[in-house]
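To: structure subgroup
Subject: Chain for Friday's discussion

All,

I'm putting the inputs and outputs inline so they're searchable in the archive.
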Amino acid sequence: SSSLLDAAPPTDARVLGPRVRLLCEQIEDAGAIHLADALVSTYLVSGDEIDALERGRIAALRGRFAWKQGDHVTAYERYRRVRTIARRIGSMELEVRAAVGFAVIARLRG
């Protein structure tokens, strides 16, 4: 985790993507979910080549941001995106992230 916070300039998106995600998690922990979501959504459209696994991780993070803000519809759509990516690339990690997200939403909805 500390290597993700390395101050050295990142060489490519494989390094920058996880750093952005970790920074957004820290911003979320500080209580600024809107800022974290704005930052990560801006990164997604920055033009960097972000691999599918990292895109799925970011979609899961944004799903969490959405349900924490009470937007269960958006959260559900983001977790659907995570599941789609998971199935396309065969990632059990993303399958689990999607399943956990769906479970949280179901619990919140009652």
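Points worth raising on Friday:
DSSP finds five helices and no strands in the chain.
The mean pLDDT is 90.

D.
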